[in-house]
Write a structure and sequence with these properties.
Layout: H1 2-7, E1 19-20, E2 24-27, H2 37-41, H3 44-49, H4 59-74, E3 78-85, E4 93-99, E5 105-112, H5 121-136, E6 141-147, H6 151-160, E7 163-174, E8 177-187, H7 188-192
Helix pairs in contact: 5-6
Bound molecules: coenzyme A.
């Protein structure tokens, strides 16, 4: 496959975890996802609310993203997992845990394809990722930011059990515009006490 040459490897240098939830499996991104990634991520709204997902999103963007996900995971900098519907086998988006220097904190991010919005999948995937961060990555806190203009994402973070920690003014930049972000966090103790 042409992508193999582009990625320069037979697969990621680490074994990605496999996390099962009621309706989803979270697993590492693979070359088999490349044809599906544009279908899931090529969306101006996903672009508007996330940091690293381009729009338009084509085949070359998928190859570049897969290569980046593998490299960051191998370096221990960020773990990107793709949630898949257990019922259909469809890959529906991504959830990412970005490790902060020192290893005590991880930042959570996520994006789902539009076809799967409004069904509780983001909450289910994000909760599984937070649980994994505390159980297996050794962090003491998981935090996240949602643009203030993205209330659905703030709601996901609330439903995951995170508490609002304040507004970070001007944290997000997009196409020369600056936006405030709502900060959320949960400690290991709070997660275990839920
Ligand atoms: C944000 C996103 C992940 C939500 O995914 P989802 O699977 O629809 O989320 P869930 O179904 O688990 O929960 C969404 C919640 O937001 C609520 N919601 C949706 N739109 C809303 C709005 N405009 N205002 C307030 N709440 C809203 C829903 O009602 C639901 O809450 P409820 O269960 O209490 O009714 C998805 O829309 C997405 O990928 N958006 C683009 C990328 C993005 O924003 N990523 C997050 C970056 S921080």
């Amino acid at each position: 496959m042409e992508a193999l040459g582009v990625l320069g490897a037979d697969g990621p240098a680490i074994g990605f975890p496999r996390i099962e939830t009621e309706r989803l499996v979270l697993r590492g991104p693979t070359e088999a996802d490349l044809p599906h990634m544009p279908r899931v991520f090529n969306d101006p709204e996903i672009y508007a609310y996330t940091r690293n997902i381009p729009y338009p999103y084509g085949e070359a963007d998928a190859v570049a993203a897969l290569s980046r996900y593998w490299r960051l995971a191998a370096a221990g900098e960020a773990l990107t997992l793709f949630p898949e519907c257990r019922a259909t086998g469809e890959m529906i988006g991504l959830v990412v845990l970005i490790m902060k220097p020192g290893g005590a904190e991880a930042e959570l991010g996520y994006a789902l394809g539009r076809a799967w919005w409004g069904k509780g999948y983001a909450t289910e995937a994000a909760s599984a990722a937070v649980g994994y961060a505390f159980a297996s990555l050794g962090v003491d806190e998981v935090n996240a930011h949602a643009m203030v203009r993205n209330p659905a994402s703030s709601r996901v973070l609330e439903k995951v059990g995170m508490r609002a920690v304040g507004i970070a003014e001007g944290l997000c930049k997009k196409d020369g515009e600056v936006f405030d972000a709502a900060g959320f966090a949960i400690s290991r103790a709070a997660w275990e006490a839920r």
